[in-house]
Amino acid sequence: MPRTRTISIDLINLEGCQSRAATNNETVHDYAEKWEEGVAFPPVDLFHDGAEYFPGDGIHRILGAIEAGLDEVPAVVHKGGQRAARLFAAAANQTHGLKRTNADKRKAVQIVLELEPKWSNRKIADHCGVSDMLVGDVRDQVQDSCTSNERIGADGKTYKLKHRPEEPEDDLPAELAGEPAAERQKPPKSGTPVRKPAELKADATDYLRRAQKAIRDLGIYQDCRPALSDLYARVKKA
């Protein structure tokens, strides 16, 4: 069990360690009032590089303590500097503290992509407590982090990404291009209820989403993205 220490706030460097999309001032004020009332907060997590302390979890508590006029906070101190603190922060607040917004989750993913661009989508998703689809979306927006052709999986092993030429649209399986080929060749059997277009579109969209997830896990999303985008557009217009 890590030992809790009391650390002077003056020794804590908050610069660049916020894993939230933005500081929630209302929460800071609320925490400040609780500090003044003598509420015993859980210790914050700090990383010490030998000179400074960097927060891995508990920035809102620290800011609340500062607003309350406190000079020190209880903390669990880990070895490491700002980088270790930021990586730790990206995994924080999944089950405690101020509930994360979607923007907070995206910010956490961005931090990990910046620090560990070779991590696989699944490994980053597990670390940040988000879906691997979200990780893929954020990775697509941060192209500089995707230049490597290697990924480190959740098992710690390094894998080479698979690349293949983009397939022509006409070469796509019939199941992805629209209705199954067999269904296009003949009308439904007598007595078979005709499904509404909205139901068919919902099924098609769900199918594409599952296919998209599988393609991301295979590491070939960049190759398939144009075709998937076209398919989504066709389903939407159908």
Report on the architecture of this protein:
Helix content is 47%, strand content 12%. The chain is an alpha+beta fold. A hairpin with a 4-residue loop joins strand 2 (44-48) and strand 3. It is elongated. It starts with a strand and ends with a helix. Mean pLDDT is 79; it is low at 164-185.
Q: Major sheet: order of its strands?
A: 1-4-2-3
Secondary-structure element string: EHEEHEHHHHEEHHHH
Largest sheet, if any?
4 strands, mixed
**Amino- and carboxy-terminal Cα gap:** 59 Å
Examine the secondary-structure arrangement and name the CATH architecture of the largest domain: Alpha-Beta Complex
The name of the CATH topology of the largest domain is Conserved hypothetical protein from pyrococcus furiosus pfu- 392566-001, ParB domain
pLDDT < 50 runs, ≥5 residues:
164-185
Can you count the helices? 10
What is the averaged pLDDT score? 79
Number of separate structural domains:
3
Form type: elongated
Question: Could you say which structural class the secondary elements and strand pairing correspond to?
Answer: alpha+beta
**CATH superfamily membership of the largest domain, which one?**
Conserved hypothetical protein from pyrococcus furiosus pfu- 392566-001, ParB domain
CATH class of the largest domain: Alpha Beta
Helical percentage: 40-55%
Number of strands: 6
Question: What's the Cα radius of gyration?
Answer: 24 Å
Report strand %: 5-15%
